[in-house]
Design a protein that fits this description.
alpha/beta; Aconitase, domain 3; 2 domains; four-stranded parallel β-sheet; about 15% strand; globular
């Protein structure tokens, strides 16, 4: 009997080209999205070495980071942005690559145009020189954000050097309350595990609340996998994903579509598959959440309170020992400073990402 595998294991195994004794692996890349910010040096490297793009048909260029949201017929006010946009257009022509410029009706945010065009599909490996490439995991793709040197490597070889991640699953069961959205789900997960909680893991999202999300909601959840420290985040594809992708310009057609769906139906974690870590949340207990600090693990309910920093409050008290209400009574100032600088209560010393005590 075949060993039970996770969704991540299945996609990884299907794309593994080589594995060295030290765990260094080479995986094949099905899709490469390229934008103007992380590609200039990569294309320059190809030019200097005299290399061509290995798989132009698997490469899609779109300008998105530096495009004004106002009237694009006007001159771009930022010279560096203008230069990057021009160089992407030049490289698209030089290497004969499909390119959506700022006036193309198909142009948009790189992680949106992939699904819109059917370029993003379940079971593919997909990379882009952008940290939020995990967005495509909403469709059951294994999607990595990569750096400029890796962009060049993929352009030249259509492969990527990686080490296999451990498996992690976040299960969110139950029904979301009114006004609680996909953003609250992912903030709750990050609040639970911390911004480093997913480091070293490929993170699968599952459960009733995840399946109930729209594709846009699933994209929101997967988009923030990197904020949890995970290399990739994804959701098993289902009929909702198929309906979104059907008849898209680059989606399979006819018999190819039917064959693709049969394969996509296998892209789910087997019963009994091993996860190195698993967390579970009850969607019914999730409130709307906001972040209060400098990173997304610092979350609190909209009905909660922002924790007071005892260190900051102590410094303020020592610098300004009196206030308008206490200026006439200097004797009261030391008491006020002493109270603020006293050891903080338990809630302010516990890890700020711990949700259980504040939801």
């Amino acid at each position: 009997m075949a060993k039970a595998r996770t969704l991540y294991d299945k996609i990884w195994d299907d794309h593994l080209v080589d594995e060295q004794p030290d765990g260094t692996c080479l995986i094949y890349i099905d899709r490469h999205l390229v934008h103007e910010v992380t590609s200039p040096q990569a294309f320059e490297g190809l030019r200097l070495s005299g290399r061509k793009v290995r798989a132009p048909e698997r490469t899609l260029l779109v300008v998105d980071h530096n495009v004004p949201t106002t009237d694009r017929r006007q001159k771009n006010p930022d010279p560096e942005s203008e230069a990057q946009i021009a160089y992407l257009a030049e490289n698209a022509k030089f290497f004969d690559l499909e390119y959506y410029d700022e006036f193309d009706k198909r142009q948009g945010i790189v992680h949106i145009i992939g699904p819109e065009q059917g370029f993003t599909l379940p079971g593919v490996t997909l990379v882009c020189g952008d940290s939020h490439t995990a967005t495509h995991g909403a469709f059951g793709a294994l999607a990595y954000g990569i750096g400029t040197s890796e962009v060049e490597h993929v352009l030249a070889t259509q492969t990527l050097i990686q080490t296999k991640s451990k498996n992690m699953r976040a299960v969110v069961d139950g029904k979301l309350p009114p006004s609680v959205t996909a953003k609250d789900i992912i903030l709750a997960i990050i609040g639970e595990i911390g911004t480093a909680g997913g480091t070293g893991y490929a993170l699968e999202y599952a459960g009733e609340a995840i399946r109930a999300l729209t594709m846009e909601g699933r994209m929101t959840v997967c988009n923030m996998s990197v904020e949890a420290g995970a290399k990739a985040g994804f959701i098993a594809p289902d009929e909702k994903a198929y309906a979104y992708l059907k008849d898209r310009p680059k989606s399979p057609k006819g018999k190819d579509w039917d064959a693709a769906v049969r394969y996509w139906d296998t892209l789910k974690s087997d019963d009994g598959a091993n996860f190195d870590r698993e967390i579970r949340l009850d969607a019914a207990k999730l409130p709307p959440l906001v972040t209060w600090g400098t990173n997304p693990e610092q979350v609190v309910s909209v009905a909660g309170r922002v924790p007071r920093s005892p260190i900051w409050a102590c410094k303020v008290a020592r610098r300004f020992p009196t206030s308008p209400s206490t200026a006439s009574s200097s004797a009261r100032a030391p008491m006020r400073a002493s109270r603020i600088c006293a050891p903080p209560p338990r809630w302010s010393t516990e890890r700020p990402s711990t949700l259980r005590s504040r939801l």
